[in-house]
Amino acid sequence: MKRVDAPASRRSHRCPARLLRLSGGSPLAVFILGLLAISAVLGSASANLGDSEAKINAAYGKRLEMPRIAGNQGHQYEKGGFIYDVMFRDGVSVFEMYARANQAELSSKEIAAFLKANAAGATWIPANEKPGGREWKRSDHKAKAAYFRMGGRPTLTVMEATRK
């Protein structure tokens, strides 16, 4: 029986991992493709704590409005299946929250990638692991991070360390 391919308009909607499996791709190739997809999403969000509002607007894409907090300006963004909440002080990011738009857990690799992007040359040191989440502090003591459920959504927060 002769195989008939789907029209081009339908072929373009197939999942790349499925195409690899259908074409005889190895499980390793599927795994590598998955890693590339994660790094593309996280790499495209290249704005970090301490970056300007203009750089974050350019990196995070579609901006959704969020309520104002006295003394700070905040924006919510949606890109690549993630929600980014960013608070600015004097035009600079001082607090960022990362969560999946579908409210699923962030993977350990995604958390590590977000922390690395916000390391600013320092390293993240685990501070506390509690039943409700995990915490880190940056080795230069200029930032801290936490992963926990916020409003039912698993969320990674990265923020400027408290000023003395």
Can you offer a commentary on this structure?
The structure is a single chain. The protein contains 5 helices and 8 strands, in the order H-H-H-H-E-E-E-E-H-E-E-E-E. It has helices at 8-11, 16-22, 27-44, 53-60, 108-117; strands spanning 62-65, 73-79, 82-89, 92-100, 124-130, 133-138, 143-150, 153-160. Helix 2 (16-22) runs antiparallel to helix 3. The radius of gyration is 19 Å and the shape is globular. Residues 1-23 and 33-45 have low confidence and may be disordered.
Short description:
This protein is of the alpha+beta class. The chain has five helices and eight strands.
Chart the SSEs and their pairings:
Layout: H1 8-11, H2 16-22, H3 27-44, H4 53-60, E1 62-65, E2 73-79, E3 82-89, E4 92-100, H5 108-117, E5 124-130, E6 133-138, E7 143-150, E8 153-160
Antiparallel strand pairs: 1-2, 2-3, 3-4, 4-8, 5-6, 6-7, 7-8
Helix pairs in contact: 2-3
